[in-house]
Amino acid sequence: MTTKLLIYNQARPVSPQRYKDWSVKTGTDYSFAQYLNSMPLMSVEFPAASTEYPIVFTGTEQEIIPAIILGVKSQENLYVTNTGKWEAKYIPAFVRRYPFVFSSSDNGETFTLCIDEEFEGCNQEGRGERLFDSEGEQTQYLGNILEFLKEYQIQFQRTQTFCKKLKDLNLLEPMQAQFKLGAGEQLSLTGFMGVSREQLKKLSGEQLANLMQTDELDLIYLHLHSMAHFSTLAEKVSSSEAPKNPENEEDSSVVQETPELAGSTI
User: Fold this and answer.
1) Backbone phi, then psi, for 32, in 5-degree steps?
2) pTM for the complete prediction?
């Protein structure tokens, strides 16, 4: 499984000196994510995401993170249509925060708000929401963005704690998914991990009680339940092979206009 995480082409620190006259107009065009075949997911998003996406775990020995699978081929997002619509009710926070992102040069001690200047919604004609007012003070819109990214960072730390516990309990194992396409072609998706049901059964009563008290056992079962959505991906692969008429394409997405993490208090 490969993931193209870098959707930010020209991310620069947000300052009143550079962006005093800038505005940002967001919409329902998610073409910037059409080449992402997977993306990170915060644990607080599991309840909403598990109803539509396969949730897996990926990373290295040093850092493991949850991710949702969006495509079975490299640089393929089966949830983004050829007109840029997102075909799912829940849109992950990783996407909704764009074109904004936090950057850090001191291992997470401090964070700087950045914006991707190449986002087509960035403008100096007053379209959308201004970043700063005429006095150079941040607008309420920019303040809401900052709060959203702060919450995202908090949830990232909580997600890391959850993943570390899964690793310490030796619950994760390598997995793969097999897909049979209409023309007889077979694809194999590898490079991700999932919770082993057998290892879960071996946990002691005390360990299970701890997972239950922290609601992490719920997260595990949401992850396991979500694996059934690999069949949804297979169906989307079959649909993507058929010719599409953009003029007749139905919009099945429900867009969340206000940035918020599922289950958070933003």
Assistant:
1) -65, -15
2) 0.86
